[in-house]
Amino acid sequence: MRVGVMRLLTAVAGLALMGVGVSLLLDVRDLSGALVWLGGAVVLHDALIAPLVLLIGWVLVRGGVRGPVRRALLVAGALTAVALPVMLRPGKPANSSVLPLDYPRNWLLTLLAVAVVTALLPAARATRRSRRRPPK
User: Fold this and answer.
1) Where does the sequence pass through the membrane (predicted)?
2) Are residues 61 and 75 in the same domain?
3) Dihedral angle at the C-alpha atoms of 101, 84, 78, 128, nearest 10 degrees?
4) Number of separate domains in the chain
């Protein structure tokens, strides 16, 4: 598939998802609460999360940690950011969209899956390189 077609499809999908978000936002009765939450998320991201991720990345690069490990840590951080609010508030969720799942267990299983894939990446690359080399 050509790059231009892929960009167009991605743009159309993004616009469709933004439309879904706007339609859901129109159903919110107390829009001020949603705006405060969104503003708080922006401030939290810009004041705490982004600088912390940049600092940790800088420290990892200085320590010689390679790309796959840094990417795995970034994915683990994103997974933690998504799961943390539900894990910190045990009991019946205030938000009806939160599914009644075992979030701590599923979070740990997902982090384990990220770690396993990260550990297997060097072996997969080595196998691919050995298949590319012509026999001597």
Assistant:
1) 35-60, 72-88, 108-127
2) no
3) -50
4) 2
Query: In a 3-state reduction of DSSP, which class is residue 33?
Result: helix
Q: Reply yes or no on whether the pLDDT at 1 is more than 80.
A: no
Q: What pLDDT, in 10s, does the model give residues 80-114?
A: 888 887 777 766 666 666 666 778 899 999 999 99
d(CA 73, CA 67): 10
Residues 111 and 133 in one domain: yes
> What is the pLDDT, as a whole number, of residue 121?
85
> Which one, of 56, 102, 101, lies nearest residue 78 by Cα?
56
- Say if residue 7's pLDDT is above 90: yes
Residue 23 forms part of a structural domain: no
Both 84 and 73 in one domain: the answer is yes
Whether 60 contacts 69, CB under 8 Å? yes
Range of the domain at 128: 66-90+98-136
104 and 47 in a common domain: no
Q: Which pTM value belongs to this model? A: 0.58
- In the chain, the largest separation of any two C-alpha atoms, in whole Å, equals 71
Report, as an integer, the average pLDDT of 115-132.
83
Phi-psi region of 121 (alpha: psi -120 to 50; beta: other; left: phi over 0): alpha
